[in-house]
Amino acid sequence: MVSAADPARVLARLEELVTAETPTDYGDGIAAAQRLVRSWIDAAVGAHGEVETVGGVAHLLWRGGDAPEVLLLGHLDTVFPLGTARERPYRLDGDRATGPGVFDMKAGIVIMAEALALAAHSGKVAVLLTSDEETGSATSRGLIEREAARAGSVLVLEPSLDGAVKVARRGGSIYRLQVHGRAAHAGLDPWEGRSALTELAHQVLSLPALADDACGTTVSPTVASAGTATNVIPDHAEVKIDVRAWTMGELERVDAAMRSLTTFTPDVALELSGGINRPPMEDDSSRELLVIAREVAARLGQAPVEAVSAGGASDGNFTAAVGARTLDGLGPRGGGAHAVDEWISIASMLERIDLVSGIIDEIAGGSTG
């Protein structure tokens, strides 16, 4: 079928947004991208986007009136450092577009803007584009939860999984485990020291035992550091730990175990910070919206909408946790998120624009709100 969207405008907007670099900590770049996207969405919804700053981080919001029917959710920040777009610029080769952030999730934001331009009920739609998703949504979480609760239904424009929408996601926890020992000269009197590194090695080897393969729970030490010089017994060491689980019960079990860690080495101390970051998104939150998506796709003559559970977390975890109906992964087909070979399919973008526009009108039209 032929998309109702204008392919030339879609491509132009995608190139503009991918070229606008938006590392999470690059405020000027985020602001420039916000101005660009605001020029698109203001016109589509007939209202001005507002910048809401929390903890020094600026997020972009269209409120959708006093009682919006649906929230479109996404993030402008990317994981790529400043200069990546110059080193690896946007490229279009047939149906395939590449460039930093094209898949996660700048194509999704273009889909969002184009779907709003086509929707008959865009004035009843709230839109939130955050600026710190890639670092855990520390400042935006409250905004996400507030706007999701106001709308009651949330469409998350994160990338699809090979075209499938995401109906469940694992929740996640992030920890920092520090070990405090005692320094000493490694040649003259090493016995006077208490090696924080040795203790850390014991902890790193023992932590994966907290996982549960049968439940899909993982506990992964990821980034570690220790020591200051080759001839010094290290008095400090630390490791960061990533935990994922399908249920809150599993996250809480691992959290309790993390807080009960004991030392293997005499006269050292452990210091734990962090905790549960994102609750799981369970599939009951997406059931009704998945039905709507499938009905809209059938009406448009598109292929049936497939659904999957995803191991990674997104801001959809927060919206589902406050009771909002949530359908995630409405972005395009593609791959290579956070990698040098990141890509998306333009044809899938055009399909998604029509699909998301139809879902918006089905919800905001009043029959399913």
Q: What kind of oligomer do you see? A: single chain
User: What percent strand?
Assistant: 25-35%
- What is the CATH topology of the largest domain? Aminopeptidase
CATH architecture of the largest domain: 3-Layer(aba) Sandwich
Number of strands: 18
- What is the approximate shape? elongated
**Beginning-to-end CA distance, first to last residue:** 28 Å
Return the structural class: alpha+beta
CATH class of the largest domain: Alpha Beta
Q: What spatial order of strands do you see in the largest sheet?
A: 1-2-6-3-7-16
Helical proportion? 25-40%
Alpha plus pi helix count: 10
Unreliable parts: none
Number of domains: 2
Rounded to an integer, what's the Rg over CA atoms? 23 Å
**Whole-number average pLDDT?**
96
- The CATH H-level superfamily of the largest domain is Zn peptidases
Textual characterization of the structure:
With 369 residues, the protein is an alpha+beta fold. It folds into 2 domains: 7-170 and 280-367, Zn peptidases (Aminopeptidase), CATH 3.40.630; 177-278, Alpha-Beta Plaits, CATH 3.30.70.360. 35% of the residues lie in helices and 25% in strands. The protein has 10 helices and 18 strands. The chain has helices spanning 7-19, 27-45, 84-87, 102-118, 141-151, 196-206, 248-258, 287-300, 316-321, 346-367; strands at 50-54, 57-62, 70-75, 91-93, 96-98, 125-130, 153-156, 165-169, 171-180, 184-185, 218-226, 232-233, 236-245, 269-278, 307-310, 325-327, 334-335, 343-345. The strands form 5 sheets. A 6-stranded mixed β-sheet has the order 1-2-6-3-7-16, sandwiched between helices. It has a 4-stranded antiparallel β-sheet with strand order 4-5-18-17. Strand 4 (91-93) and strand 5 (96-98) form a beta hairpin. Helix 1 (7-19) crosses helix 4 (102-118), helix 4 crosses helix 10 (346-367) and helix 8 crosses helix 10. The longest helix is centred in the C-terminal third of the chain and has 22 residues, at 346-367. It is elongated, with a radius of gyration of 23 Å. The two termini are 28 Å apart. The mean pLDDT is 96.
